[in-house]
Amino acid sequence: MSQLPAPSAAALAHSEKLASHIRQQIAAAGGWIGFARYMELALYAPGLGYYSAGATKFGSDGDFTTAPEMSPLFGQTLALQIAAVLPHTAGNILEFGAGSGKLALDILLELERHNSLPQRYYILDLSAELRERQWQTFQQHGLHLLPLVEWIDTLPQQFSGVMLGNEVLDAMPAHLVELGANGWQERGVQDSGNGFAWAARPLSDPALAPICSSLGASAPYLTEISLANRAFMRTLAEHLQQGLILLIDYGFGAGEYYHPQRDQGTLMCHYRHHAHGEPFYLPGLQDITVHVDFSAIAHSALDNGLDLHGYTTQAHFLLNAGIGEILQRFDPNDIRSYLPHTSAAQKLMNPAEMGELFKVIGLSRALDLPLRGFCSGDRSRML
Questions:
Q1: 73-77, 205-209, 240-244, 273-277 — which is least confidently predicted?
Q2: Exposed (0-12), middle (13-18) or buried (19+): which is 181, by Cβ within 10 Å?
Q3: pLDDT for residue 60 is more than 50
Q4: Is the pLDDT of residue 59 over 80?
Q5: Where are the domains of the chain?
Q6: Which pTM does this prediction carry?
Q7: How much of the chain exceeds pLDDT 70, in percent?
Q8: What is the pLDDT of residues 151-168, one digit of tens each?
Q9: At a CB cut-off of 8 Å and minimum separation 6, what does 184 contact?
Q10: Residues 303-332: what's their mean pLDDT?
Q11: With 0-12 CB in 10 A as exposed, 13-18 as middle and 19+ as buried, what is 307?
């Protein structure tokens, strides 16, 4: 990992503090924890994990760049779809894991432009540091909209409106499972005395075995199963009384996700805009992600009473929802203003950038309304 930027002494000390905490958890569990538990600790351990501590994560000074950080076009286009749905509900928006707050701000500014502001814009984020950053974003760029924003710790018992999550699912803990000579086992983590090391054990959760058996894989094969994603969808279904859930993330349907040639899984880490596959490197200082199995998302939703409204690529969704209309606001003769917007749109929709790998799934309850974002290019048959 010598090619990666060196962390500061303070960052190294923070990482070692988290590593010590993880080692204690491994010892308390008898010398081994599943990777899902390691990922949970590395990302969310209170005050120490990547998302619960104070390091900058988004944008040019962070570890990765999300679509809202790239351009307001993303949030503005989502707002066009949201504006069509809100009048058919109680008119609320709830965003999970709102990052820097940029997406919330862009959505609200665009809705304001169309005189379609929500009753409330709820933000559910577990990170106190990110909540503070979101508040500062509105303080600096949308102070007049702050009265609409409410930070919450738990889901409302009954929600009517639009639930929204951009790059939330990929950061939920996932189990690593591997098929070898001894059948399916779970890959986990132990303390080698000189860092963390991989170690395989029998599957730790009874829910894993039937999923593994359904994959039809041939040894050797390594992949991920996110029980957390499935549980998340069950929870949303319990709380959504009426409205739409929009989830945007990178991933595939099960047929692509568990393709025989994808035999090393999708686990990926992000540190200072470098992607690599070493989750034990500097715990607490890097993001750890897995791609999303959108078939599991859809089936969990359907099994819990939700409807599938559509599933498509980010490129198709943005084109359908009206990104072209927003681009028409800018004068192509004003090159200095126009080019940054068209360049950002290219990155958002180019198949070689975010356009193809990123997907949008729409799930709903009691919403008899065609959604413009899924009017063409729908891939629901692939789920």
A1: 273-277
A2: exposed
A3: no
A4: no
A5: 9-382
A6: 0.94
A7: 97
A8: 999 999 999 999 999 999
A9: 177, 178, 203, 208, 209, 212, 213
A10: 96
A11: middle
Q: What is the 3-state secondary structure (H, E, C) of the chain?
A: CCCCCCCCHHHHHHHHHHHHHHHHHHHHCCCCEEHHHHHHHHHHCCCCCCCCCCCCCECCCCCECCHHHHCHHHHHHHHHHHHHHHHHCCCEEEEECCCCCHHHHHHHHHHHHCCCCCCCEEEECCCHHHHHHHHHHHHHHCHHHHHHEEEECCCCCCEEEEEEEECCHHHCCCEEEEEECCEEEEEEEEECCCCEEEEEECCCCCCHHHHHHHCCCCCCEEEEECHHHHHHHHHHHHHEEEEEEEEEEEEECHHHHCCCCCCECCCEEEECCEEECCCCCCCCCCEEECCEEHHHHHHHHHHCCCEEEEEEEHHHHHHHHCHHHHHCCCCCCCHHHHHHHHHHHHHHHCCCCCCCCEEEEEEEECCCCCCHHHCCCCCHHHC
Q: Are 285 and 15 in contact (CB under 8 A)?
A: yes
Instruction: Tell me what the mean pLDDT of segment 220-237 comes to.
Output: 98
Predicted pLDDT at 7: 85
Q: Span 144-149, mean pLDDT?
A: 98
The answer to whether residue 61 scores a pLDDT higher than 60 is: no
Rounded (10°) CA dihedral 100, 103, 108, 109: 90
Contact 74, 80 (CB under 8 A): no
- Yes or no: is domain 9-382 CATH 2.30.40.10? no
